[in-house]
Amino acid sequence: MNLEIILHAGLATGTILLFAAIGEVFAERAGVLNLGVEGMMLLGAMAGFSTSLSTGNVWLGLLAAIIAGGILSLAHGLVTIHFQADQVVSGLSLTFLGTGLALVLGEGLTGKNPPLVPSLDIPGLSAIPFVGPVFFTDHSLLVYVGYLFVPLAWYYIFHTRPGLHLRAVGEKPDAADTMGVSVYGLRYLYVFVGGCLAGLAGATISLSVSPGWYSVQTTSGQGWIAVGLVIFAQWDPLRAALGAYLFGALRRGILDLQGPATLLGMTNPLYINSNYGFFLQMTPYVLTIIALVIGSRQAARKRLGAPAALGLPYIRGERGL
Amino acid sequence: MKLPFTILFEKRMEDVPKWLPAATSIGSVLIAFLISGIILKLIGGQPLRVAGFFFDATFGSWAAISDTLVKATPLIMVGLACTVAFKMKLWNIGAEGQFYIGAFAASLVVLIPMVPLDSPRIVIIGLMIIMGMIGGAVWGFIPGLLKGKFGVNEIITTLMLNYIAILWNNFWIFNKWSDAGFQMTPPFEKNAWLPRLADYAREFRAFSGITLHLGVVIALVATVVVWWVLERSRWGYEIKLTGDNKEAARYAGINIVRNVILVMMFSGALAGLAGMSEISGVVHRLQERISPGYGFTGIIVAWLAKLNPFAVVLVSILFGALIVAGREIQPSGLAQLLQGIILFMVISSDVLLRYKIRIIRLQSPAAGEVEVA
Amino acid sequence: MSESPFAVEMNDIVIRFPGVLANDHVNFTLRQGEIHALLGENGAGKSTLMNALAGLYRPTMGTIKINGEVVSFSSPKDAIAQGIGMVHQHFMLVPTQTVTENILLGLDEPRFLMRLKAYDQKVLALQEQFGLRVDPTAKIWQLSVGEQQRVEILKTLYRGANILIMDEPTAVLAPQEIDDLIETMRSMVAQGKSIVFISHKLHEVTAVADRVTVLRKGRVTAEGVDIQGMTKRDLAQLMVGRDVVFSIDKKPQEPGDVVLSVKDVHAENNKGVPALRGVSLEVRQGEILGIAGVSGNGQSELAEVITGMRPCQGSILINGEEVANQPPINSIRHGVAHVPEDRTHVGSAPNLSITDNTIMKAYREKPVARGWSVDFTYARENARKLKDAYDILAPSVETMARKLSGGNLQKVILAREISQEPRLMVAVQPTRGLDVGAIEAIQTLILAQREAGTAVLLVSEELEELLSLSDRIAVIYEGEIMGIVPAEEADVEELGLMMTGTRLADIRKQKATADTGRIEA
Question: Which of C190, C213, C240 is a domain's end point?
């Protein structure tokens, strides 16, 4: 159980959750709950994989993944923003849609080997003791993109004018509307952004971190974990990143727990009976529940929490008090 | 080119015509089939042939109809589970997990065993029914408590519990109760099986090979019970009121926390009952895969049925047919895709329930009159 | 550019909503540098007309001219560009953001990076110019209602608005704060602004306006008439169309035993701030105790602790039994009827039928309950009887509650609560937002309860209503009772002073000293 290895793997796995979670942060900050993340991720994974395979160009694959996620999210946007349908059910239907599409269009992709996203070291930084090998050595390009993305997202949301409008639209859309901010327009935009990032997250799995196409198993619920992380993150990209990397590290740590014969000086029960591994596999899901409980209680305590208009359709002229 | 009329979406002020909800649901299904057919054509399949297979496989013979009903049986109960929860705006996405735990709990009767294995059939099956409901209820209790007491989002907790339930199941069947190292338990004794029509093949030759089992009766009984609870009982009134306006329910003196927990338990119990029915009526053992996603299909069933228990039965038969046909049809993900499109179409068409379309003839401006804005 | 004495000219405006003709060929003009009142009862179409001027609605027919030029607004941004600013009745402010952030919302500047400190300074400078003081770095939820209104006004001034529309600005202010607002308005007019002042309160209109336009049911009944020479009676007639009876028929009666006894109650509001600080009062059978005070001083919380919807410290007795800190079901069982402030989000279930709404409190007991089930046949019959008795306008008892007008919905709620034959009725802002006909009906129902011997706790923002209905009036300010006076002896000035924080005892003392001073001199 090498801490360096666990952290290193955690950063890679965490990047997947990070893109999806921050994408969802954008959408929810604008007031739209998007539960279709899992479907968009899977579709993105498939689209990226298949495009990279057929064109031989992994960058086109990434682009395809992003667009696939984005287009699917626009369907969600249309139904919830213009048709004012229930956001929860619409998101669920998109999970089914995305999953179904991915499975149907992804027939026959298993076992193929398209070009993948390259891994590299960052010269100079990778030489720093401990930090270097963990953070800056032998990581997929997408991981480094992730590092840059987090502070940019944070700064955008909290310290720029467009970020102010984003938050206003999710907190009090009628105030934004009367000041001339396009509530519908911004909501569509950020739902789209969320969908694109979910698609990217999917491609991060299939073209980078866990390369390959394994049908539904490709994502195995990570989209849902990302949605849970948003609540834990209190809609803040920095906390979302923290949660994502932590989860990633825990997943790797769990795998490693199954290997050695002794654990902390005692015999490792997993070594004796690998079936106990099932309980270990439960850990990410149990942790998500715990993270949610923590997040919900903190929200109640701080009397802050979700953007006030989250989940509610905006209709001009309705005096919603 | 200027059109001589404009189209307006206007908020519907009068009551919704009674036929409209059913029409939107049926219309959605038809359009979904159409779209799937198009997609199939685009990827090189043959939609009409597929449609032919579909009909043969699902309604083409008594055996086919029986197969369809067998698949519909757990769907009815899971659909009811989702209906109950959704009525109170509790998004129970965990029917799949509650199904598995229900199956597990029912299996315990035989695996421990809880009563001697040569007890009368009615005792064993009765006990399995009770255990199935208890298992599902416990699995519904957990997210119910978290939501009621701590306000934790039930969508994610129930979903996480799905994965946990499957892993839990796996542990026991790979490990302690494994049948010679395979991922399943040994088959149950005959008197733990729900009676099937095929059992009476000696008396009625027509019944040979018909796998329709008593579970369908259990499902229909459950339908009536759920209808009565939701539409006629005092508790049902509380559920309806809480689902429409939580604050008003609180103002009316209703104990919201208690109802959240109880409704989740009721919902879980119904899903657990479905699990028991599959175990005892179809599979006759506990194994790794006992559900092709019934828990998720149940969500769509409930929504398509517009939360009406009797409509749930009808929709379940349709979806049962889809599952039966899905086994034969390539590509395999098509059934899921179809389900997704149906649900998407249903929620899109819901907009017609709230707004109506009006076409207005534009009049040419008369002399001296001001132009239209 | 044509020279026009009119800052705003609206001609032949028609605005139609599904089922409602909100503005029916309305004409309206606003002169440079005047304060023009737009008068009408609730639902007459005043807000709709001004919302069109502010760019929120497109008129179906008609023209709008600003300074003589025809304009067409497709969004609020266009109106803002023409120098029109609206101060809404329900504030359009984002609670979690600061004053400056709210003022900057929707503007193109700053381009990308927020440099709040620089803009804080700009906001302060603007405040100096018009005398509207508020801390730019404070978050909106931390501000008082009066301060929030100042932010709303600053928003419009920051954008260089020359034409200001103020929608019912005094609804949330105490009498002294209203005087401050009038000062601010005069100062703005002196600096070249023109103001439209929407109201349904006659005394304010006569106090501040230069000209008045009256709307009734979407039509103009008086267009741009000079205020001088109009009496309140004239205006009321134009508003309602018949001679309005200003007084209500209240019979004198002796109150009976004490029903509600509140002793030294402390409670917090939703933000964790103390909302009730040692409140004590009593209400007897057959009397109406009115609670006066500006919204936000603890009235809502008082109603909530009595009806079991909020925890508190202290004692609340109904007929001698303790009901404090018990769930709502308990106060219902003790015979407490509650007509809540929020009729759509608390008092009714919008998507359920009228029948379902009428049995909300009765469904646990016979005859509505039958064992474990609900006798819906009986419930429907009963609902029909109530519909006739209370004159509720609706297609049927199966109609969904949210299709009902405010007045009819309130009647449903009152019908339900009165059917419970309560010992105590807690009514919070029962006539808010209703038209005159509905107001009269609701007030009559409340008086009838008084005659029937029910104890009534009536919370209202309208002093006139309290004066005409109550037997005694208590004034609440920042969670404390400033004083309780019998309604007949109540003096509006005294009440106003109590509403802004002076205790009754202190007022009387000051008066006594002033009187003796005068006598001596």
Answer: C240
Q: Does the CB of B112 have a partner CB in chain C at under 8 Å?
A: no
Query: What is the Cα–Cα distance from C177 to A98, expressed in whole angstroms?
Result: 57
| Structure token digits, residue A267 | 């015999």
Mean pLDDT of B59-81: 90
Contact by Cβ (8 Å): A19, A70? no
Residue A320 counted as domain residue:
no
From A176, A308, A321, residue closest to C105, measured CB to CB: A176
Contacts of A35 in chain B (CB under 8 A): 155
pLDDT at res. A265: 64
pLDDT per position as a tens digit, B168-198: 998 888 877 777 667 788 888 777 788 887 7
Low-confidence ranges of chain C (pLDDT < 50): 1-2, 521
Q: C115 and chain A: CB distance < 8 Å anywhere?
A: no
Domain region containing C491: 258-335+422-514
Residues in chain B within 8 Å Cβ distance of A288: 156, 160
Identity of the residue numbered C163? I
| Closest chain C residue to A317, measured at CA | C56
Q: Which domain holds residue A198?
A: 3-302
Give which of A165, A197, A202, A159 is closest to A47, Cα–Cα.
A202
Chain A neighbours (≥3 Cβ pairs under 8 A) are: B, C
Question: How would residue B369 be classed by pLDDT, with cut points 50, 70 and 90?
Answer: very low
Whichever domain contains A65, its CATH number is: 1.10.3470
- What residue segments make up the domains of chain B, in order of their start? 74-307
Cis peptide before C110 (omega within 30 of 0): yes
A319 assigned to some structural domain: no
Residue C226 shares a structural domain with residue C303: no
**Does A75 sit within 8 Å of B347, measured CB to CB?**
no
Neighboring chains of B (3 or more beta-carbon pairs < 8 A): A, C
Residue A309, in any domain of the structure: no
Q: What per-residue string of b and e applies to C180-204 under the rule 16 or more CB within 10 Å gives b?
A: ebbebbeebbeeebbbbbbbbbbeb
- Check CB contact of B43 with chain C, cutoff 8 Å: no
C85 with C186, same domain: the answer is yes
Tell whether B327 is within 8 A of chain C (Cβ). Answer: no
Asked whether the predicted pLDDT for residue A303 surpasses 60, the reply is no
Angle between helices B121-150 and B95-111 (to 10 degrees): 140
CB contact under 8 A, B150 and A296: yes
- As given in the structure block, the two tokens for residue C155 are 């928003």
For residue C329, list chain B residues with Cβ-Cβ distance below 8 A.
253-255
Å from A26 to nearest chain C CA?
17
